[in-house]
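README: folding subset

This subset contains proteins for which both the sequence and a predicted structure token string are available. Records are stored as plain text. Below is the entry for Sugar transporter SWEET1 (219 residues), shown exactly as it appears on disk.
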Amino acid sequence: MDFLLFLSWACIVFTVGMFSTGLSDLKKMRESKSAENIQFLPFLTTCLNNLGWLFYGFLKKDHTIVFVNTIGAFLQILYIVVYFYYTKQKRQVTLQTLAAGAILITGWLYFTTFLTEGEARLNQLGLTCSVVTVSMYLSPLFDLVEIVRSKNVQCLSFPLTVATFFTSTSWVLYGLQLNDYYIMVPNTPGILTSLVRFYLFWKFAPVSQSSPSYKPLQK
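--- output ---
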């Protein structure tokens, strides 16, 4: 099997697996009939990020990026709909969704109307998506600082950390093969933050439990 094709499948499998971690939140909302203790903004920002990368994939004619982010956007929209159904803060959720929609429409108009066809549009879109992806990977750093202070890793998800590590590594290698820095660079922080989390698990995991369980991270 060609190495690039192998990396393509690795990106698909690991990324879809990472996006699917939100299904645990969906199950929790359905069972409790409530969206309490579930964060809404991560669903919304991830959806915007997926749609941005989906557009990038179309412009670049990269089927891997298109396929992964089509599934990602579908799952995030599903999470958003279920969250809206069960939340008691429908007005706040509606306003946040409308704001995200306005950002999406503004971005779409900018990249389709004010930028000419070709490399300029692809580069600016890639840079924009890269900045959003980096910010999403770095946003949990504040939680990691709190974990160091409390010496408690119960709020971290070990499976999600593993999934993030392999997903980020796959995309970095994929971007390296394509010589695409817009894919390679924004996924590098995902590797670094995952390594930090692995260290925190090793440092602060309960030694009294043979198989410690970790609560899902509400991203």
